[in-house]
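Hey team,

Filing this mostly as a record. A colleague (T.K.) asked me to run one chain through the structure pipeline before their review meeting, and I want the input and output archived in the tracker in case anyone asks later how it was produced. No errors, nothing strange. Just documentation.

Input sequence:
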Amino acid sequence: MMHVQHLKGKSFGSIVNGVDLENMDNDTWKQLYELWIERALLIFPKVFLSPAGQDKFALRFGNLEFPRTAITNIGKEEKLHHEISDDVVKVLRGNEGWHHDSTYMPVQAKAAVFSAEIVPTSGGSTGWADMRSAYESLDPILQERVESMRAYHSYYYSQGRDGYLPNEQNEDGTYNYYGFHGEEISLRPLVKVHPDTGVRNLIIGRHAHDIIGMSKEESKSFLDDLNDFACQEQHVFYHDWEPGDAVIWDNRRLMHRATPYDMTEQRRMWHTRIAGDVQTESALNHQPI
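Output structure:
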């Protein structure tokens, strides 16, 4: 039987026990999905999803942007990537900034399933921030102001600003890592109406830059202040991982970030990204025909 415990004092998130995520009946699935739409983050302690089972569970929420993929500092033959000049480390360190997944792509991701296989002795927790409660807590004048704002989202921008661009660049200016595409930079509103709830939330984070109508410096300062406001303690929850834990979060509503850990220790997580609906998650300049 499914047992649900909402995160104490938080506007989002629930811990769920007693569900076989790989073999649910339709009634259980319906309850779980409705809970997810309401709470945006579901945490399943020590469920130990199988590789195929993780993707099978993710597919219940929609088509996959990409299947189960390792997010890890463990390389071939158990080599540990830990030096900041290492391209793998640059990706991992970049993930420590608050962001929504794939806002830099033509279609923003809907959600993600994330699970833990190997965790370090300390650090490496994951944080989520509720952009619905952040928007609702804005001063009404600022709420009205951000309603009409649009910003570009780019992985080149976020990784470049933090000094984490890959070491080798292709002749066309791209890099051989996911997200460094050669398509037009995605333009998105700062305020999104959630397609399932009809409730507004912010879409911001480290990939957002160059608000239309602002200078680069004015935009940078405004977005930094907005991100800091949105990710205050009352809007945020951090999960300390145990092997076998799994989560599913709503990428349309929540931002997330990794936290630092000693990269001379092993950490291996598994990420399945669920594709957004092209009708509701496409960038303004990548609308379906």
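Quick notes for T.K.: Helices lie at 26-39, 51-59, 87-94, 131-136, 140-147, 155-161, 216-230, 278-281. The chain has eight helices and 15 strands.
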